[in-house]
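Human: For the file, kindly provide a plain-text protein record giving the amino acid sequence and the backbone structure tokens, at your earliest convenience.
Assistant:
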Amino acid sequence: MQVLDQISEVKTRLQAIAVAKADEDASFRQSLAADPAAALGKLLGVDGFSGLSIRVIEEKAGEAVLVLPPAADDGALTDDQLARVSAGAGVSDNLKTLLEVLNSFIRFQSVRS
């Protein structure tokens, strides 16, 4: 699975989890808006998201939020990506681990329901 595909899968699962929890818990909704990574990390039991930046935008009534995909680049790695690769930690490996955590969380939630 390509890195962009992994990011898309993580985003889809994180959004489903975040929206469901925010709909039932006003305190979580406020925490999610203030510090998405911390709120989701606490909910999922993970410490950070390994270089994945998370932003939450609350859509208002009568508003449509459009999300643009990443712009095409020249294929060069960022300084952070270079540091991770040289340290032996690939972004792809971190995303695979996060997907495993999300899948486990979703399975646990469906068993509780």
